[in-house]
Design goal:
Layout: E1 7-10, E2 14-17, E3 21-22, H1 35-47, E4 52-54, H2 63-72, E5 80-85, H3 101-115, E6 120-125, H4 134-146, E7 150-156, H5 160-169, E8 172-178, H6 190-197, E9 200-204, H7 236-255, H8 260-269, E10 275-277, H9 284-292, H10 300-309, H11 322-325
Helix pairs in contact: 1-2, 1-9, 3-4, 4-5, 5-6, 7-8
Length: 330
Protein backbone atom coordinates (compact mmCIF):
# COMPACT_ATOMS: atom_id res chain seq x y z
CA UNK A 1 0.00 0.00 0.00
CA UNK A 2 1.54 3.27 -1.14
CA UNK A 3 0.07 6.63 -0.28
CA UNK A 4 1.03 10.24 0.07
CA UNK A 5 0.66 12.67 2.92
CA UNK A 6 -0.14 16.34 2.64
CA UNK A 7 2.91 18.54 2.64
CA UNK A 8 3.83 21.50 4.81
CA UNK A 9 6.42 24.23 4.46
CA UNK A 10 9.18 24.92 6.96
CA UNK A 11 10.55 28.43 6.78
CA UNK A 12 10.23 30.05 3.38
CA UNK A 13 10.35 27.07 1.04
CA UNK A 14 11.41 23.75 2.56
CA UNK A 15 8.61 21.34 1.66
CA UNK A 16 8.20 18.25 3.82
CA UNK A 17 5.51 15.70 4.61
CA UNK A 18 3.07 16.79 7.31
CA UNK A 19 4.39 13.98 9.53
CA UNK A 20 8.06 12.98 9.67
CA UNK A 21 9.94 10.06 11.17
CA UNK A 22 12.23 10.44 14.17
CA UNK A 23 14.87 7.71 14.05
CA UNK A 24 16.53 8.19 17.45
CA UNK A 25 14.86 5.23 19.15
CA UNK A 26 16.19 2.80 16.60
CA UNK A 27 19.62 2.93 18.21
CA UNK A 28 19.58 5.27 21.18
CA UNK A 29 17.85 6.00 24.50
CA UNK A 30 15.27 3.23 24.30
CA UNK A 31 15.86 -0.49 23.91
CA UNK A 32 17.79 -0.85 20.66
CA UNK A 33 15.70 -2.31 17.86
CA UNK A 34 16.80 -5.08 15.49
CA UNK A 35 18.41 -3.44 12.47
CA UNK A 36 16.25 -5.22 9.90
CA UNK A 37 13.09 -4.05 11.65
CA UNK A 38 14.39 -0.49 11.74
CA UNK A 39 15.22 -0.62 8.04
CA UNK A 40 11.74 -2.00 7.32
CA UNK A 41 10.28 0.87 9.33
CA UNK A 42 12.05 3.44 7.15
CA UNK A 43 10.86 1.53 4.07
CA UNK A 44 7.30 1.74 5.30
CA UNK A 45 7.62 5.45 6.03
CA UNK A 46 8.70 6.16 2.48
CA UNK A 47 5.86 4.00 1.13
CA UNK A 48 3.35 6.02 3.17
CA UNK A 49 4.67 9.32 1.83
CA UNK A 50 6.74 10.37 4.82
CA UNK A 51 9.62 12.42 3.44
CA UNK A 52 11.19 14.08 6.52
CA UNK A 53 13.69 11.69 8.13
CA UNK A 54 15.37 12.90 11.32
CA UNK A 55 18.56 11.74 13.02
CA UNK A 56 21.55 13.23 14.91
CA UNK A 57 25.23 12.53 15.43
CA UNK A 58 24.72 12.01 19.17
CA UNK A 59 22.25 9.15 18.65
CA UNK A 60 24.26 6.02 19.31
CA UNK A 61 26.48 8.03 19.23
CA UNK A 62 27.05 7.98 15.48
CA UNK A 63 25.43 4.61 14.82
CA UNK A 64 22.01 6.11 14.03
CA UNK A 65 23.34 8.22 11.19
CA UNK A 66 25.00 5.14 9.71
CA UNK A 67 21.74 3.20 10.01
CA UNK A 68 19.76 5.98 8.33
CA UNK A 69 22.38 6.18 5.59
CA UNK A 70 21.97 2.48 4.88
CA UNK A 71 18.18 2.80 4.91
CA UNK A 72 18.21 5.59 2.33
CA UNK A 73 20.84 4.17 0.00
CA UNK A 74 19.67 4.40 -3.61
CA UNK A 75 16.72 6.68 -2.85
CA UNK A 76 18.27 9.79 -1.41
CA UNK A 77 16.12 11.97 -3.64
CA UNK A 78 12.93 10.74 -1.95
CA UNK A 79 13.62 12.36 1.41
CA UNK A 80 14.36 15.57 3.25
CA UNK A 81 17.24 14.41 5.42
CA UNK A 82 17.72 16.18 8.74
CA UNK A 83 20.50 15.67 11.24
CA UNK A 84 21.96 17.59 14.17
CA UNK A 85 25.28 18.39 15.78
CA UNK A 86 26.50 19.94 19.00
CA UNK A 87 24.26 18.19 21.50
CA UNK A 88 27.62 17.36 22.94
CA UNK A 89 31.08 17.28 21.46
CA UNK A 90 32.09 14.06 19.78
CA UNK A 91 35.70 15.28 19.94
CA UNK A 92 36.17 16.74 23.41
CA UNK A 93 34.95 14.48 26.18
CA UNK A 94 32.84 16.31 28.71
CA UNK A 95 32.03 19.34 26.57
CA UNK A 96 28.29 19.69 26.18
CA UNK A 97 26.84 21.35 24.24
CA UNK A 98 29.42 22.27 21.58
CA UNK A 99 28.78 25.15 19.20
CA UNK A 100 32.37 26.22 18.54
CA UNK A 101 32.73 27.51 14.95
CA UNK A 102 35.79 25.35 14.36
CA UNK A 103 33.77 22.28 15.37
CA UNK A 104 30.82 23.00 13.08
CA UNK A 105 32.53 22.11 9.79
CA UNK A 106 34.18 18.97 11.19
CA UNK A 107 30.90 17.77 12.66
CA UNK A 108 29.14 18.31 9.34
CA UNK A 109 31.80 16.46 7.34
CA UNK A 110 31.63 13.55 9.78
CA UNK A 111 27.83 13.37 9.48
CA UNK A 112 27.99 13.49 5.69
CA UNK A 113 30.43 10.56 5.74
CA UNK A 114 28.34 8.48 8.13
CA UNK A 115 25.14 9.17 6.19
CA UNK A 116 26.87 8.50 2.87
CA UNK A 117 25.42 11.65 1.24
CA UNK A 118 26.78 14.80 -0.35
CA UNK A 119 24.37 17.28 1.22
CA UNK A 120 22.24 17.50 4.37
CA UNK A 121 18.85 19.05 3.72
CA UNK A 122 18.24 20.42 7.22
CA UNK A 123 21.13 20.83 9.65
CA UNK A 124 20.30 21.65 13.27
CA UNK A 125 22.30 22.94 16.18
CA UNK A 126 21.11 20.30 18.65
CA UNK A 127 21.59 22.38 21.79
CA UNK A 128 22.71 25.98 22.17
CA UNK A 129 26.22 26.32 23.58
CA UNK A 130 26.19 28.92 26.40
CA UNK A 131 29.94 29.44 25.98
CA UNK A 132 29.71 30.51 22.33
CA UNK A 133 27.76 33.43 20.86
CA UNK A 134 24.95 32.07 18.70
CA UNK A 135 26.06 34.43 15.94
CA UNK A 136 29.39 32.62 15.74
CA UNK A 137 27.84 29.16 15.59
CA UNK A 138 25.20 30.09 13.01
CA UNK A 139 27.78 32.01 11.00
CA UNK A 140 29.82 28.83 10.71
CA UNK A 141 26.68 26.88 9.80
CA UNK A 142 25.89 29.44 7.10
CA UNK A 143 29.30 28.74 5.55
CA UNK A 144 28.17 25.14 5.10
CA UNK A 145 25.21 26.38 3.07
CA UNK A 146 27.50 28.50 0.91
CA UNK A 147 29.75 25.46 0.43
CA UNK A 148 26.81 23.33 -0.76
CA UNK A 149 27.06 20.86 2.11
CA UNK A 150 23.81 21.94 3.77
CA UNK A 151 20.57 23.29 2.27
CA UNK A 152 18.71 24.72 5.28
CA UNK A 153 19.57 25.57 8.88
CA UNK A 154 17.71 24.75 12.06
CA UNK A 155 17.97 25.13 15.82
CA UNK A 156 16.75 22.87 18.59
CA UNK A 157 15.53 23.90 22.05
CA UNK A 158 16.45 27.56 21.59
CA UNK A 159 14.97 30.52 23.48
CA UNK A 160 13.16 33.36 21.64
CA UNK A 161 16.03 35.84 21.98
CA UNK A 162 18.48 33.24 20.65
CA UNK A 163 16.20 32.48 17.71
CA UNK A 164 16.04 36.17 16.81
CA UNK A 165 19.81 36.56 16.97
CA UNK A 166 20.32 33.45 14.83
CA UNK A 167 17.78 34.59 12.24
CA UNK A 168 19.65 37.90 11.90
CA UNK A 169 22.74 35.95 10.76
CA UNK A 170 21.11 33.48 8.36
CA UNK A 171 17.51 32.36 7.70
CA UNK A 172 16.42 29.60 10.05
CA UNK A 173 13.99 27.14 8.46
CA UNK A 174 12.89 25.29 11.59
CA UNK A 175 13.11 25.05 15.32
CA UNK A 176 12.90 21.52 16.68
CA UNK A 177 11.58 21.22 20.19
CA UNK A 178 9.33 19.00 22.25
CA UNK A 179 5.62 19.64 21.69
CA UNK A 180 2.63 17.49 22.56
CA UNK A 181 -0.53 17.42 24.62
CA UNK A 182 1.57 17.11 27.77
CA UNK A 183 4.33 19.55 26.78
CA UNK A 184 2.94 22.92 25.68
CA UNK A 185 5.50 25.27 27.24
CA UNK A 186 6.54 26.76 23.91
CA UNK A 187 3.11 28.25 23.25
CA UNK A 188 3.81 31.17 25.60
CA UNK A 189 6.79 32.75 23.83
CA UNK A 190 8.62 30.41 21.47
CA UNK A 191 5.80 29.65 19.05
CA UNK A 192 4.76 33.32 18.64
CA UNK A 193 8.39 34.18 17.92
CA UNK A 194 8.62 31.50 15.25
CA UNK A 195 5.47 32.73 13.57
CA UNK A 196 6.60 36.34 13.65
CA UNK A 197 9.85 35.35 11.93
CA UNK A 198 8.37 32.80 9.51
CA UNK A 199 10.17 29.80 11.01
CA UNK A 200 8.60 26.34 11.06
CA UNK A 201 8.22 24.14 14.12
CA UNK A 202 9.34 20.50 14.06
CA UNK A 203 7.76 18.81 17.07
CA UNK A 204 9.74 15.97 18.60
CA UNK A 205 8.17 13.55 21.08
CA UNK A 206 4.65 14.47 19.87
CA UNK A 207 3.44 11.24 21.51
CA UNK A 208 5.04 12.05 24.85
CA UNK A 209 7.87 9.54 24.33
CA UNK A 210 5.26 6.90 23.66
CA UNK A 211 3.27 7.62 26.80
CA UNK A 212 0.33 9.25 25.00
CA UNK A 213 -0.26 6.08 23.00
CA UNK A 214 -1.60 4.48 26.17
CA UNK A 215 0.67 1.45 25.84
CA UNK A 216 2.89 2.27 28.85
CA UNK A 217 1.17 1.59 32.15
CA UNK A 218 4.14 1.09 34.48
CA UNK A 219 7.92 1.16 34.52
CA UNK A 220 7.73 -2.59 33.97
CA UNK A 221 6.62 -1.88 30.41
CA UNK A 222 10.05 -0.37 29.73
CA UNK A 223 13.26 -2.28 29.11
CA UNK A 224 15.97 -2.33 31.76
CA UNK A 225 18.15 0.01 29.69
CA UNK A 226 15.30 2.28 28.56
CA UNK A 227 16.16 5.94 29.17
CA UNK A 228 12.58 6.70 30.20
CA UNK A 229 13.03 4.81 33.47
CA UNK A 230 14.99 7.85 34.67
CA UNK A 231 12.56 10.40 33.30
CA UNK A 232 10.55 12.20 36.01
CA UNK A 233 7.24 11.81 34.16
CA UNK A 234 7.55 8.02 34.14
CA UNK A 235 8.24 7.66 37.86
CA UNK A 236 6.15 7.11 41.00
CA UNK A 237 3.28 9.46 41.70
CA UNK A 238 4.02 11.40 38.53
CA UNK A 239 3.33 8.30 36.47
CA UNK A 240 0.08 7.66 38.32
CA UNK A 241 -1.14 11.20 37.70
CA UNK A 242 -0.09 11.16 34.06
CA UNK A 243 -1.99 7.92 33.48
CA UNK A 244 -5.18 9.81 34.31
CA UNK A 245 -4.47 12.12 31.37
CA UNK A 246 -3.72 9.35 28.92
CA UNK A 247 -6.80 7.39 29.96
CA UNK A 248 -8.96 10.38 29.10
CA UNK A 249 -7.21 10.77 25.76
CA UNK A 250 -7.94 7.10 25.04
CA UNK A 251 -11.63 7.64 25.81
CA UNK A 252 -11.87 10.62 23.47
CA UNK A 253 -10.00 8.75 20.74
CA UNK A 254 -12.25 5.72 21.00
CA UNK A 255 -15.24 7.99 20.45
CA UNK A 256 -13.73 8.99 17.12
CA UNK A 257 -12.72 5.47 16.10
CA UNK A 258 -9.05 6.29 16.55
CA UNK A 259 -6.19 5.29 18.80
CA UNK A 260 -4.89 7.52 21.57
CA UNK A 261 -1.70 8.05 19.60
CA UNK A 262 -3.61 9.14 16.52
CA UNK A 263 -5.63 11.65 18.52
CA UNK A 264 -2.48 13.05 20.13
CA UNK A 265 -0.80 13.42 16.74
CA UNK A 266 -3.88 14.93 15.15
CA UNK A 267 -3.91 17.55 17.90
CA UNK A 268 -0.32 18.54 17.10
CA UNK A 269 -1.14 18.71 13.38
CA UNK A 270 -4.13 20.93 14.17
CA UNK A 271 -1.93 23.55 15.86
CA UNK A 272 -1.04 25.07 12.51
CA UNK A 273 0.24 24.38 8.99
CA UNK A 274 3.74 25.37 10.11
CA UNK A 275 3.92 22.52 12.66
CA UNK A 276 5.39 19.14 11.63
CA UNK A 277 5.50 16.34 14.21
CA UNK A 278 8.21 13.67 13.92
CA UNK A 279 7.02 10.70 15.99
CA UNK A 280 9.62 8.00 16.42
CA UNK A 281 9.00 4.32 16.04
CA UNK A 282 10.88 1.12 15.25
CA UNK A 283 7.87 -0.81 13.97
CA UNK A 284 6.40 -0.62 10.46
CA UNK A 285 2.85 -1.05 11.72
CA UNK A 286 3.21 2.07 13.84
CA UNK A 287 4.04 4.01 10.68
CA UNK A 288 0.60 3.13 9.36
CA UNK A 289 -1.03 4.18 12.60
CA UNK A 290 0.84 7.48 12.73
CA UNK A 291 0.13 8.30 9.09
CA UNK A 292 -3.54 7.67 9.77
CA UNK A 293 -3.54 10.60 12.18
CA UNK A 294 -3.37 12.94 9.19
CA UNK A 295 -6.84 11.77 8.17
CA UNK A 296 -8.36 12.32 11.59
CA UNK A 297 -10.42 15.51 11.54
CA UNK A 298 -10.79 17.33 14.83
CA UNK A 299 -13.70 19.71 15.23
CA UNK A 300 -13.59 22.95 17.16
CA UNK A 301 -15.40 21.11 19.95
CA UNK A 302 -12.78 18.34 19.93
CA UNK A 303 -9.95 20.86 20.15
CA UNK A 304 -11.65 22.77 22.95
CA UNK A 305 -12.13 19.55 24.90
CA UNK A 306 -8.48 18.60 24.46
CA UNK A 307 -7.34 22.08 25.45
CA UNK A 308 -9.36 21.81 28.64
CA UNK A 309 -8.08 18.31 29.31
CA UNK A 310 -4.42 19.12 28.66
CA UNK A 311 -3.64 22.75 29.46
CA UNK A 312 -0.14 24.15 29.85
CA UNK A 313 1.54 22.38 32.77
CA UNK A 314 -0.81 19.39 32.86
CA UNK A 315 1.98 16.80 33.02
CA UNK A 316 3.29 15.75 36.41
CA UNK A 317 7.08 15.98 36.49
CA UNK A 318 9.69 17.81 34.45
CA UNK A 319 10.22 16.64 30.89
CA UNK A 320 13.87 15.75 31.58
CA UNK A 321 16.03 15.08 34.63
CA UNK A 322 17.80 18.14 36.03
CA UNK A 323 21.08 17.97 34.05
CA UNK A 324 19.26 17.90 30.72
CA UNK A 325 16.76 20.56 31.77
CA UNK A 326 19.66 22.97 32.12
CA UNK A 327 20.43 22.88 28.38
CA UNK A 328 16.86 23.44 27.19
CA UNK A 329 15.51 26.75 25.89
CA UNK A 330 19.08 28.00 25.45
Amino acid sequence: MESSLETRTLGQDLTVSAIGLGCMGMSFAYQEAPEQRSLATVDRALERGITLIDTADIYGPQTNERLVGRALRGRRDQVVLATKFGGRSLELEGRAPDGRPEYVARACDASLARLGVEVIDLYYLHRVDPQVAIEETVGAMAELVHAGKVRYLGLSEAAPATIRRAQAVHPIAALQTEYSLWTRDLEAAVLPTLRELGIGLVAYSPLGRGFLTGTIRSSGDLGDDDWRRGNPRFQGDNLTRNLELVDRVRELAAGKGATAGQLALAWVLAQGPDVVPIPGTTRPERIDENAGAADLELTATDLAELDALAPLGVAAGERYAAPMMRVLNG
